[in-house]
Write the structure tokens for this entry.
Amino acid sequence: MEFYSTVQIDAHTWMIKDCFQSYMYLLEGDTQAVLIDSGIGLPGLREYVGRLTQKPVIVINTHGHLDHVGGNCQFEKYYMMQTDHEILQEHTDPVFRKHLMEGFAQEFQLPFKKEELEELAKLGDMPFFFQIMDGQVFDLGSRTLEVIATPGHTIGSVCILDRERRNLFSADTVCDQGILLFFTHSASVREYLKSIRSLQERRTRFERIWPGHHSLPLGLDYLEMYEECAEQILTRPERGEDICSNLGEGKLWRMGRVSITYQLQNL
Ligand SMILES: [Zn+2]
């Protein structure tokens, strides 16, 4: 089966989707290219990216989850917040990966045999790691990317602002359907609300939001929806529904087409 498919966003920007429904974005400047996230870690990503751009490629990870960092090992280096490094280590462990990949394969009805998933769960060594900071700028040549720290989904989650083209790459911080804040390594609901508000303060600087999963692109109305959803949780947190899934358990708050999962002990 095909592991990857592509949607071209403009002449120098592509969304690459792997068959586990993780989105990566390839952004090309005059001198270099950035791959925002590297998917769940399937073979051939490097070659696939090499067919779209001839520029040298660096990887920036929006956070340390397995479906965003798996392909890092196919590149020379990756950039991520230091605060997500421990998560990355846990999420690149083959036993941990195998367990979650089996769940995803079932959810997305992928025709992998158990032994194939076991092989796919094994990754090569991680390349050199470079720490990024809030406000850090990457100059790709006539194209500038800015890192915006948005703790919530994980403590070290970031969004990437594509300044000239006015895109915001939001990964798992702003998605259609729902945001998960119920992990032990998630920031509190209050911190997530602060992150959404910091995106709101910058809303004149982007026109579209490109998430890590589900429908795309999203309008800026999603910022209002998540702001309101987080505010509602903080008003009466105990009233969320109890939920339990293969990713974890906690409370779920639904509001129209969005939702947030959270923990009462991490408000
Ligand atoms: Zn995630």
Summary: Residues 63, 65, 153, 172 surround zinc ion (CB under 6 Å). The helical segments are 45-52, 66-69, 85-91, 94-107, 114-121, 189-201, 221-235. The longest strand covers residues 248-255.
